[in-house]
Amino acid sequence: MEAAQNSPAAGGAAAYENTPSAVTVKLAVDAPEQMRALGRRLASVLRPGDLVMLTGELGAGKTTLTRGLGEGLGVRGAVTSPTFVIARVHPPLGDGPALVHVDAYRLGGGLDEMEDLDLDVSLPESVVVVEWGDGKVEELSDDRLQVLIDRAVGDTDDERRSVTLLGVGARWAGLRNESWAPWA
After folding, report:
1. What pLDDT, on the 0 to 100 scale, is given for residue 10?
2. Mean pLDDT by 10-residue block, N- to C-terminus, for the chain (184 residues)?
3. How far is CA 6 from the centre of its chain?
4. Using CA atoms, how far apart are residues 83 and 108, in angstroms rounded to an integer?
5. Residues 85, 134, 78, 58: is their CA dihedral positive or negative?
């Protein structure tokens, strides 16, 4: 079984670990329902203005995690992959923030193409989740939560995932102190 390699430069989570002021938490997820549960748990620490970047191979569980985030945030509408619409806004059902779900897979590099989505306008009052955002949205915020999902690749039905939460910036300084059970 071959290990998945995430960007940048196929360095996986290790490529981010030397980021200044970064806090890293490593978790194991054994099934899609656990990935959704992790999303619900992450939603409990998110607030308006948070930028969450999701990195992982096709089928790693990025959208499944985002479904859990949507459930935890209490937003309207089914959370599905926004691949063909690029971005989808899920308004809150209550007092919480909206969820802006972006799939940057088909977009070129850099913030220039992302500017057309007005993410900088949405960010202050929403939680913005960007799949495939490496090298494209980091400039939106000095503080961001990067979620790296590694899975076995090749001919396998293995549902286990290794998830690395990497909090960048002062906003995420306490990330390691959160209770991540049952994943911790």
Report:
1. 41
2. 36 53 88 94 94 92 95 92 76 93 74 56 82 82 93 75 94 82 55
3. 13
4. 14
5. positive
Rounded Cα distance, 183 and 33, in Å: 13
Contact 55, 148 (CB under 8 A): yes
152: burial class by Cβ within 10 Å (0-12, 13-18, 19+)?
middle
Given the structure tokens 């995420």, which residue do they identify?
A: 172
Nearest to 135 by CA among 162, 167, 112: 112
Q: Indicate the DSSP class of residue 132.
A: T
Two structure tokens written together for 120: 């900088």
Give the tokens for residue 12: 């996986």
The H-assigned helical ranges of 109-153 are 111-115, 119-122
- Measure Cα distances from 76 to 5, 96, 102, 155 in Å: 34, 11, 16, 36
Query: What pLDDT is stored for residue 174 in this prediction?
Result: 86
Q: What percentage of the chain has pLDDT greater than the value 70? A: 73
Contacts of 169 (CB under 8 A, 6+ apart): 21, 141, 142, 143, 144
Whether the CB-CB separation of 53 and 134 falls below 8 Å is answered with yes
